[in-house]
Amino acid sequence: MLTKDKAFSIARKLAKSEYYQTVYTQEKMRLKIFVNNMDLTDLQIYFLDYLNLYHGLYIDLALKEIDEKIFECEIYEDAYVYWKNHKKPDKEKVNKRPQRPETTQNPTGNKFSWLFKRNK
Amino acid sequence: MENKDLNKEKTEKIKEDMNKAIDETNVEELIRANVAEFEHKDIKYRVSRPNGVQRKELYKERGKKHIELLNEGSFKPQEVLINLYLKQNIDIDGMDRKMLALNKQKQDLNMKLGQALKDKASDKELQLFKDEIQKIRELQQELSIKKTNYLEFSLENQVNMFTYSYCSYLVTEKEVKGEKEGETKWVKAFDKFEDFQNGDEELLNMITFRASILMMPQELMV
Prior knowledge:
The complex is a heterodimer of chains A (120) and B (222).
Chain A: H1 3-16, H2 18-27, H3 42-62, H4 74-86, H5 91-96
Helix pairs in contact in A: 1-3, 2-3
Chain B: H1 2-21, H2 24-32, E1 35-40, E2 43-48, H3 52-72, H4 78-87, H5 92-118, H6 123-150, H7 155-171, E3 172-177, E4 184-188, H8 193-197, H9 201-214
Antiparallel strand pairs in B: 1-2, 2-3, 3-4
């Protein structure tokens, strides 16, 4: 295995760790994980991707969408994330989505009133 | 033939040494900042991402090297090399097609395994998918190494290797004593590219590993 690959593999393990997941969740908006805020390196960009990947997996675990087994190997983790990103949308959920009204009538059957009224 | 084997052995040894040098602490440091500091024989070194001026110099030197090698003629452009290999029944474009087909197979298996994980399928079923994906990964790695080896002596690869070294030379500094007592300052670690090329092998490994992580691939590619 090439040395750069090994570095990226370690980065993935670190991103999975409790410490970096906590930092990521708390500092998500401010990106304080790195000393530099700009001019990120490839490794830093990948590290953010890995943090995001594991953050999503831990959320699904908390929601009981998956079980601990998924964390046994990277093949399971990658396959689940790939499946999640590429699966066809759930038909039932799509049908449950509120439909756009065919007319400008609101659900009560009344016409929407103008937001701005002219002074009489 | 013996020489070739010796070179291969030497390359493997360098890779092994570099792998040993990479531990979690090193990688964690490289994640935290786009500058890396380390010590070698009691001298502090610093490797950083190339700045605008360095990038311009790198681009210029890369171009110069490209033309130089093209004129020299000892290395053939990738396209020419691929056609030469084809005459020897080695189909490099075919390898690319095979790689794409393997990727498609892997994606299909990922979909099945992902669904199985979601459905909390049995360990046996999961293991079957895992083994199949693992086999594809190994085949892909094998193909990728083969292709890299075949194209090692292409003009483009030689220029890339030069760019890597030149960039490592450009972005490396060392700490020296400043004018006032107790003061230190950073200066270029190597005055000339030749000095870098003739440098201590262990030090060069430490520099190139860090520089390769800090550089963006597009800064190196021709």
